[in-house]
Amino acid sequence: MYAMPSHSRIARVREGRGPGRQAPLAGLLAALDLPVRTVAEALGISERTLHRLKHAPVVPVAIADKVARTHDVFARATEVLGARAAAQRWLVRPNPALGGRTPLALLDTSLGWEEVKQVLGRIEHGVPG
User: Fold this and answer.
1) Which are the contacts of 90, defined by CB distance < 8 A and separation ≥ 6?
2) Which of 24, 79, 91, 125 has its CA 20 to 30 Å from the CA of residue 119?
3) Inter-residue contact 48 to 61 (CB < 8 Å)
């Protein structure tokens, strides 16, 4: 999804599809390698809903949008922090720059997503975040 032009990414989200060939939620779970409960909470859905939709090739647009935002932040965190494992840890640790909340907990809204991206930008430029 990251190498796609933004208009293609937007179209995929509007279709309820994920960034790759995998079902959106299955792809996100595989990428993050975090507990189902943690991912469900981050997406603002129940574990039951996540399990029900895990292998669905198309999900509701609101969920597809959150999946896309979460993939974007995970890719950016991996780039900034230099490793997947570091990004995974960073996403689930409370962060003082985010008011003590975890980055993952803020990704259910566009405002939270922007705040998390700003913190990653500060980290990239050597400002504590």
Assistant:
1) 77, 81, 103
2) 24
3) no
